[in-house]
Amino acid sequence: MCEVVAREAAGPRVVAETDGFLAYVPEAARWPYEVYVAPRACVPDLPALDAARRDELMRLYADVLRRFDALYEHPTPYVACWYQAPARTKRDAAHLCARVYTPQRTADKLKFLATSETGGGAYINDVLPDAAAARLREF
């Protein structure tokens, strides 16, 4: 994940960033508006962050949610998945990351997963990741 964050930091899918964290649309986004929020440094979990870094992360996370709300000019539903290291083993192999996405395709349409997505893992996204990032940067 460290290599992915470093590569994305220099790419066109960055939505927002701080000194210590990056918010970006993944290259193979499964949802029209999906953002990963991750530390630039290899950090295993939230407790490994000091208070200043936790505040910085939460400001960036809140900024991503504000951008989701601005997409459709109303509070937008979202799903957030936090990925952290296991408590006792292989902590050095993990990289803290939040995956945030909205099930909305447009202001009045939800994205429903089809058989190819739920059964076969082949996701179809009608918004290109670069275009989604550009749109989210507008806000």
From TrEMBL:
| Superkingdom of origin | Bacteria
Q: Which UniProt keywords apply?
A: Carbohydrate metabolism, Galactose metabolism
Could you state one GO cellular component term attached to this entry? cytoplasm
One Pfam family recorded for the sequence: GalP_UDP_tr_C
GO biological process annotations for this chain's record?
Answer: galactose catabolic process via UDP-galactose, Leloir pathway
- The question of whether NAD is a record keyword is answered with no
Q: Enumerate the spans annotated as Galactose-1-phosphate uridyl transferase C-terminal domain.
A: 10-137
> Care to name a GO molecular-function term for this sequence?
zinc ion binding
PANTHER family, per database record = GALACTOSE-1-PHOSPHATE URIDYLYLTRANSFERASE
Q: What is this protein called?
A: Galactose-1-phosphate uridylyltransferase
Q: Which organism is it from?
A: Actinoallomurus iriomotensis
Q: Could you read off the lineage of the organism from its UniProt record? A: Bacteria, Bacillati, Actinomycetota, Actinomycetes, Streptosporangiales
